[in-house]
Design a protein that fits this description.
The complex is a heterodimer. Chain A is mainly alpha-helical. Chain A contains 17 helices and no strands. In chain A, helix 1 runs antiparallel to helix 4, helix 7 packs across helix 14 and helix 9 packs across helix 12. Chain B contains 14 helices and no strands. Classes of the chains: A mainly alpha, B mainly alpha.
Chain lengths: ~375, ~300
Amino acid sequence: MHLPQRVGTALFAARARTARAWLRLRETVAGLLLTAAGLAVAATRNGLRITIGVLAGGYRRLPAPLRRGLAGAGTAVYGALPGVVCRLLDRAAAGARTCIAPRTERERERRRILGLTIPFFVLAIFAAFVPLAYMVRMSLSANNLRNEGWSTDAWELLLADPTYRTVAFNTLWFAALAAVVSVAVGVAVTHALEKYDLPFERVLVAIISFPIALPGLVVAFLIIVLLGRQGLLTNALAAVTGPSNIDLASAYTVLGLFLGYVYSLIPRATMVLRGTYAELNTDAEEAARALGASPAQTFYHVTLPEIRPGVVAALILTFRTALAIFGTVLILQSLDVATLQIDTELNVGFNSQVAGAIGVVYFLFILGFTFVALRYVETEVVEI
Amino acid sequence: MSREDNHDRESAGTGSAARTDGGTATRTGTGVALSSRFGRGAVTLLLAVVLAFLVVPILLTLVSSFAAGATGVLPEGFVTLDNWAKVLGFADYGVQESVPGTLLFSMRLATGGMLVNLLIGVPIAYALTRYDFFARDWLNAVAILPLVPGVILGLAFVRAYPHNAGTWFGLVTGYALLKSPFMVLTVQSSFQSMDLRQLEESARSLGASWPRAFLTVIVPNAKRGIVAGSIICWTLAAAEFNFTYMVYSRGPEPFAMFLFRNITNAPFLQQAAAISVYFCIVVAAILTLQLLGNAGFTTDRD
């Protein structure tokens, strides 16, 4: 053989050897870890006073008869464990082996899925689960400055005081009404955008999507620009009708707040509905029109049933979004909804327990609502 | 829909008659239905009203920021850059803390949140699109729906991490969690338009290891979605208010708190200028998203 070929073959063999050695090493490590785990269980159950680390490290180097004896003892102990524990241990051992030294393609895939989703879980645990657990504890704390002692006063107050029932009622009807109105308007807007041949359609869509980027705080300001004491509409109405424009200012009334909600929700409803409209089959509509149905009839009997999933999805999204609105209502302050009440509890006497309890109820409601609602539509269509 | 509904109710009698006989053409001779005469006009009018409702306050704010006074119906005294100068900190007097400082701080926070979102959003979007596994649908719902409102998360953060909640670290973590659904969804929609299995298998059969196939073949192919998701996350995080309001106590001021202070305290024209700064950012974001093929400020593709 020529030299380059020989070098190539040698290199190839060396690489294969390295790969084999690497696999063997990983198998060994996995085996040792498992042995250690098994022995740890055995040791704690039997009360044996042995250093687990030393045993685990030395297990492979023990003489064969002793090793077999130990394995036998381990098996016996293992067999004495309740079935559930055995199954759990098996699952854990299999999982650990899959992660450390996967053997089949399926196992490698499992490891990949784990690796791809772990960053998300880490963030979710530290930024959501842990804080939410603290919040539950906060609602049961006896001290309002830190989690200390136990008390159910906040929850009793929440159940007994009619104020909180009013807040809950306000939150729900206001969000529901805003969602329904926004989706109704959204259907009309989407219909016009998708069905009529309007000029600059892309620009119109971009303009309608603009408010999605605005925080509730800015939306409140825009409502003040329209309807505040110096607002455009207020001044225009005052110029026409005559009365002092203070009386006409409606930004700080429930109507103003409602317009603020609708301002945030119409763009979101429209974007969800656009997705549904894009997939609409126009043949049935054309047939209905050709058969003599009026546009309204065609819409009601043909189009509406087809876009129903989109309408439901838009209702779910807008209702959820409306529940979470805070900045708008903090500035306009015209209706006691749950988010504002949390702020009030903290500002007046720092009732952190009550605020925490409202937060828990609120979060559980949104969670429950979402998962019940998802039974009716696909998850993907709910998001803008 | 309300207008359409009205028309439908007006023609309800004939509508139900048409339905009972299967919608055949029996209505000829009763004249033209109201909806074919006015329907299109009414819906278009509603669209125009909605557009005006959405756009007029934004434009008025933008215009007012260049005005010298705003006591009449419309702002007057154009064109002056005083308000912008005050807000941007170029004037001798004005807001104590100028926009550049607070905006720069918020931009850094938003960039931090966006980077975290890239690290967690792209991998999980790939796992959810490419593989099928135990509880995939549940994980999908949790990853693409914002389940915790900002206010509640803020409240929980303050108690769980009393010393870190209001610092840049707490803010970045909160923004990352709150905005992650937008990243996951946008990247996912990009992945869904690709044949992932084929791409991955071709790369691997040509000798790439799996990590290499993922990083050098699949991720670059989803570039459009990743960039769009980053822009959306960044813009939303730059002015995130609900969470910031709950956790912020002292230290450098995030942009949303600056806006809040201005909206509650400053003179109208200065507020207008401060908010217009953010409008400029949103306009830039929307233009970029449109270049990338998104239909405006959404995760939805055109």
